[in-house]
Known about the structure:
By secondary structure, the chain is α/β, with parallel strands linked by helices. 44% of the residues lie in helices and 20% in strands.
Amino acid sequence: MPKLIRKFKLRSRVRMVVCVMCLYCTGYICMVLSRKSKIKHTSMELKDSQRDVVKKKHSCFIITMNASLESAQLENNITCHPFIGQSVNAQILSHVDVKIQSNLLRGMSSRGAHYTNNKSVSIAWNHMQLWKKLLHMDGSEDFWIFEDDAIITNQSISVYDQLHKSGLFRNNYIIKLVNGYRMKWLGTYELAKLKMFSVNDVLYVLKKCICSRQQNLFNVGAYVIDQHASRVLLERFFPMRYHVDIYLHYTGYKFSNLFVVENDAVNFSGRPSTHQSEEENFQRILLAFKEQLINIFSSDC
């Protein structure tokens, strides 16, 4: 009798393991099929968009706090003009979510996505001012937006030109010319590969964000945005809550068309972060890890 009971328990455990494995495999297959469906749908959208390639005008800006920064002159008579940003003041802080204002006063943050200090607020504010400026421009114009630690060369302009001439973008788009992952080992299921291309013997891959974030796509040091996307970002910007790179990701995926260029089309000077001291770095890493867990469990990828 005891032997029969042990055999029965063993068989029950085996069945349970098999059931769990079947559920896991079924879930994985559904995820893959869903992703393939999204990629197929994305490809169809891109084919449709290739029918009408509208010639765009461009304006280029460098966000900086350095009033003596000079303009950057590029090929094709393109000039990147300094956009002098604002430091945080009472008027800017009044637009920040009340709870986050309280956290800032106490020198803490409840989430990695939320502002961690006043400088992170001013950075988001200054990007927003350029989105607002674009909103009042001719609808056929794109803004190239750089932060002042970006090393701006003709290569980034050539990358954009090649992408635009291909007809991949029609309206409501954000094209990140750089990207960053903290946990790339999680995979990049949210990014569908759309196009491989070469500019001056450098290979690039264009990807589109097709599902809810699995991990944060950091860095807004260099990106292109059209008027429609600027309206989308402005409509959801207040009250202010998120670091601007995370806000661009969360909102850009859901309400716009968020594209990422890999390999990075822009290099950076390696200057230390202006909105994060060494003392804050450890706290920021912990908050980023917490935010990553939130993303993993809320992702539909």
